Amino acid sequence: DGGITQSPKYLFRKEGQNVTLSCEQNLNHDAMYWYRQDPGQGLRLIYYSQIVNDFQKGDIAEGYSVSREKKESFPLTVTSAQKNPTAFYLCASSIQDREQPQHFGDGTRLSIL
Amino acid sequence: DQQVKQNSPSLSVQEGRISILNCDYTNSMFDYFLWYKKYPAEGPTFLISISSIKDKNEDGRFTVFLNKSAKHLSLHIVPSQPGDSAVYFCAASGYNFNKFYFGSGTKLNVKP
What we know:
The structure holds 2 protein chains of 2 kinds.
Chain A lengths: L3 E4 L2 E4 L5 E7 L5 E7 L5 E9 L2 E4 L6 E3 L9 E3 L8 E8 L8 E2 L3 E5 L1
Chain B lengths: L3 E2 L4 E5 L4 E7 L4 E9 L6 E7 L4 E4 L2 E6 L4 E6 L8 E9 L6 E2 L3 E6 L1
Parallel strand pairs in B: 2-11
Antiparallel strand pairs in B: 1-3, 3-8, 4-5, 4-9, 6-7, 7-8, 9-10, 9-11
């Protein structure tokens, strides 16, 4: 059963702490994306990767970092430099065709303790 | 600078009637548009798309209309069902864009 798995579903971060959100897909998609959703706002792109070992900043990359060492995995680290990290984070993947929709995971809700 | 806008945060419709969700965009280079549906605490799921070479695309109860001159698209759901209650996002992309731009979403409530 192919899909995208995000973990954990809920995550709490202490001030000054880095946390890593996991995203794994078994859809054999080349492209992967991280979005942030805040109340009343659309999805804002944090980082994306179109191929292994390569990634680009999205619109709100400051305070975040990513890696793409494997096709299946695209973890997102929320660093202590991200001053307002409380949000719902969504990971997505797609084939390398801009006229194909992205498939989304069920998200991780990050909160500050 | 929001390039894709959904100006209605919420919409309430009676079961069986038509739901019309609207989306406006500003970038004339956009030529591919999608609608996603999202339930609480879940990721968005793809609903329907339209390319700029068309002005209408239908899939069952869902129809998307595109008015390129007005830079406007709409999603029609007929007939609306309570299970359609969710947040709907429109998204746009274009040639040489390697990402999608999302609107802020419209929360649809279909009343039984």
